Task: structure prediction
Amino acid sequence: MTTALPGPLVSTDWLAAHLDDSSVRILDCSYHLPSVDRNAREEYAEGHIPGAQFFDIDAVADPENDLPHMLPDADRFAAAVALLGIANAHSVIAYDCYGVFSAPRVWWTFKVFGHENVAVLDGGLKKWQAEDRPLAGGDESSVPAVYQARKDMRLVRDLYAVRRNIDTGAELFVDARSAGRFHGTDPEPRPGMRSGHVPGSVNLPFDRLIDRDTGCFRSTEDIRVAFDDAGIDGTVPVITSCGSGVTACVLTLGLDLIGRPHGAVYDGSWTEWGGRPDTVVETA
Result:
């Protein structure tokens, strides 16, 4: 029997009570920006939540695309998660080492491939460790499962769709990067990348939804205010974007938490848009 999740977020208390639940699968989805000298896979081996498998967003990706961690096709995704012992009936919990950073990307990825029973651990490994909860080292064993996936492209936007949206304005383009990167006053972490933003977009840095001390999402009221202040009131469909399609998903999950349509994610994000010579970039 599948364990129903309480929502798109689960607490550390909830997860601690379900560590031995055979219908729950836990994924360490930690990821570091290229400018950070850390290795998420090695850190997983040093200490992770007991039973968690490591989900490498750079490996479960389209191998034919030069952009980082672009979504794979349905067959590749299904094969990867099946090797992690995940079947369609399992409840999946994603977490990362920062609190809330890259785990929402994996939450969204599972949604794209039709897996609805998936949630993010609020506060992630940061909160788990702060509460002095148990850790495991090394690798976890898993029995390969059978998984079927279907890719829902309604949740994804590509370069063509973003270009078309500049002309139509049918969707509100929301950028999760810092204000400095959005306005072109701070450099991008990836070498050779232009700074600035997609014309007509608005800026809501993803960390405005996160409590810095705990690594957890702020209250739903605080999240609602953050979106409202940025002009994102839920009346227009949303496209979220960021540097490479990771923290955009924090905003997407935030919209879900306050009951607003969470629209789609621009998978290539600024790495694609800012890295091309034929795209228009604004800084004002």
